[in-house]
Structures are given as C-alpha cells and as structure tokens.
Design a protein that fits this description.
Radius of gyration: 13 Å
Largest sheet: 4 strands, mixed
Order of helices and strands: HEHEHEE
Shape: globular
Distance between the termini: 12 Å
C-alpha cells in the first residue's frame, strides 16, 4: 500500500512519461496483461492509455489491472492511468519513507 508521500513522488516521476501500453476495444486480453506485466517488471512505473473505443473507463480498467498484475494504482487522469510495482530483484525507483 502506497503512502500519500510515496504516491505524490510517483506522480511527479510519471508526469513526463509516455504511455507504454494502449488498451483498445479488445479490452484486457491475456496477451495485453502479459505485456503489461513485463513492462512493470522492467520499468516499475508504467503509464497506460485507454483508447476512446474501449467500453470501460480508465478507472474501471485500472482497478482490474491492479488485481491481475499485483500492482499499485498511482493516478488516473482522463483516459490514462499510472501503475507501480516494485521490482524486488533490481529496483530502479527508491520511494521516500
């Protein structure tokens, strides 16, 4: 569970990021979840874009993705949301205490 200070720090890091994963009308497929899992392992902080032809909102998709990838929800702005999952083997982001 992220503390408010940690969430704020991750938001500042996510601001300049471009979305690495795009979710379209297909929704959450197994291949998309595998791609997202791989991105979280290598980057730790991932921005996801939900295309307008998707049937669900960004917040609805984000909560489902968090459960399936064991990641933390950072923020949702418009049709984009950001996720964080610490890489225990090679951490890249040091969260404030």
């Amino acid at each position: 569970m992220l503390k408010p200070k940690q969430r704020s720090y991750l938001k500042s890091l996510a601001n300049p990021l471009k979305p690495l994963v795009h979710i379209g009308k297909e929704g959450l497929s197994e291949s998309l979840l595998a791609q997202l899992d791989e991105c979280l392992t290598s980057h730790e902080l991932v921005k996801v874009s939900v295309l307008e032809n998707s049937q669900l909102s960004a917040k609805e998709i984000a909560s489902e993705v968090c459960e399936k990838t064991r990641s933390e929800f950072v923020q949702a702005i418009g049709n984009r949301f950001t996720l964080y999952r610490k890489n225990h083997e090679e951490p890249k982001i040091q969260l404030p205490k």
